[in-house]
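pinned: reference chain
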Amino acid sequence: MTTYNTLLPRSAFIGFDRLFDELERSFDRRPNTYPPYNLVKVDDEHFRIELAVAGFSENDIDITLNNGTLTIKSANGNKEECQSDCGCYIHRGIAKRHFQREFTLAEYVEVESADIQNGVLVVNLVKNIPEEKKPKKIQIGSKSQLLNE
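pinned: its structure tokens
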């Protein structure tokens, strides 16, 4: 990976390792275009990732969430299988090569569900902000009275 000089030293920021890792990854200029995907904002709390996975089954894809990073990768890649009941490929025009896509989720964004529909992996996300973290309206002239906005 290419190292970039930053204006401020990384060692001056304690606990921000993940932020610096994300910045370094964003400067990695190698294009990753397989498989193509869509990001959809359904509303302010619901999002969807659509990943083109034609030729893959549920058993061929691993989805993991670790420390705010959603990783979607092929489990088997371009594994050649020749089964007597299905036959062997003479030509394979639908790509089934190894892939890995990573998505950094914002705080409080959780994976709601994942399913394959018509060759598209659909991962539904929801933003669950705890009540105590939501904005509160403070009424003027009252003592410590908070009203939900």
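why pinned: The chain has one helix and nine strands. The chain has a mean pLDDT of 79.
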